[in-house]
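Handoff note, outgoing to incoming analyst
You'll be picking up this chain. Sequence as last confirmed:
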Amino acid sequence: MTGRPVSAVLPPVLRAWLGAVAALATLTVGVLGVVYAGHSRPGTVDGWIFPPTADSVRPPWRGVALATDFLGEPGGAVVLVVAVVAGCLLLRCPRAAVSAVAGAGVAVGVATLLKFLVGRTIHGDNLSYPSGHTAFITALALVMALLAAGRLGLGRTAGMLLVLAAAVVAGAAMGWAQVALGAHYPTDVLGGWCTALAVTPATAWLVDRTADRLHACTYGRPGDRAADGPGDRIADSGGRERR
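Most recent structure output, in case you need it:
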């Protein structure tokens, strides 16, 4: 008896391309972090978009921005992650469920660490670079897009378009809310988006590798033959006697 392999979260056909995207995203996060380290005001790029203020948007769009922002707050994030995990389990994709939790957690953790390292602030002493809200929602969107690409059997081009489109839509929606509410500078949002692009594929790859090793240990050991049926053991015994 052997275990049936589980589909990878990170489709093999996308690994090289997502690795290149992750490398570029890592470089972007690093460059922006160096440029804006210790700053407490909008940069030149931020000024091209619009300076974040407390009333950048008004009703009804302000309500939309607040609702979007809630999805990145602890309460909303927990609800969203639980919903995604439940969906993955209903689809019998435990690896994706683990990747959703791990990917979002790692993205937020890295963003939080970078905030202390970079030290950029907004509205006083509020650390702002990179945006943890944007990193969180983008990471979740990436995991769901990877799951969809794998289950649909998409090729490299279609798979990459789906994954990047999901990341852009999710990151743009949360990024707009963060800037509109004055919580982050636009470059903070870009940094958070790139943080998710950098760490989520790597996290998914680690989940796959760990699951593959556990699968091999469980079903690849000689001792697993003890799980064979009585007929198999009798047949093996007979084979040894004839030899």
